[in-house]
Amino acid sequence: MKISVITVAYKAAATIGDTCASVAAQTGVDVEHIIIDGGSGDGTAAIVAAQARPGHVFVSEPDKGLYDAMNKGAALATGDLVGFLNADDFFCRTDALALVAAAARAAPDAAAVSGGVAIVRSDDVTRLTRAYPPTPFAPWMLRLAHMPPHPGFYSRRAALAQVGGFDPAIRIGADFDWMVRFFVGAGLTARPIPETLVTLRDGGLSNQGLASRRQINCEALATLRRHRLLALAPLVWAKYPVKALQYVMPARGWPAPAAARWPKKGIAGAGRA
Questions:
Q1: The CATH number of the domain where 233 resides is what?
Q2: Over 90: is that where the pLDDT of 209 sits?
Q3: Comparing C-alpha atoms, which of 16, 178, 4 is closest to residue 84?
Q4: Are 120 and 202 in contact (CB under 8 A)?
Q5: 134 to each of 66, 114, 146, how far by Cα in Å?
């Protein structure tokens, strides 16, 4: 089974070395790594070139934003399963994609595999701040604007084609819109696995304070209404008390067992993921 990992980058020289090295460290599976760079001038291309490996595709050109770049990567993917790994995130274990492949083989009727994400401090990737597991999740939770963690979500390529691309007109929440189309519009299912697969540095477009949360919730409400689902602002905002539990729960399988742990040699900071 072949897995396509798509990384979208722009001026990511400080972190993309970790991302690429963690993909290269994956064992037991055929991996295609597609990096779509928005024409960075900060050394991103040189770092990616230094990490070049079989199955590596690098495209650097101007784009129309994050989701346009993600669509470009998806169009190039040839794997049986396709997922997205941000340019400031990395796999926290060397068998992450092997676990995804095994779950996909064990559940041929599932259109995707969903694993957990560990959210860490951007200045110290050994410090867990929040665990984002794939369970509990059921499609009705989309009405709360809750979805499985996208960096741990690997869709079969046929399902990706069925659902269609990300809507570039949505500024922050096009991944939520895509999940609604996956689970509700197409009626597809995902097989959750308990292990934490990805370490995600805190921050990012959707986690930049109250203004970004207000923006993403407004977009989520618009998405729900567009798909004729019950859409009430209090329901969408109600997810935050539930999400607060993620700050006290452990991330299952994080850090990974020593035999499967990827030693972070990073561009930004030191330590082990």
A1: 3.90.550.10
A2: no
A3: 4
A4: yes
A5: 23, 6, 11
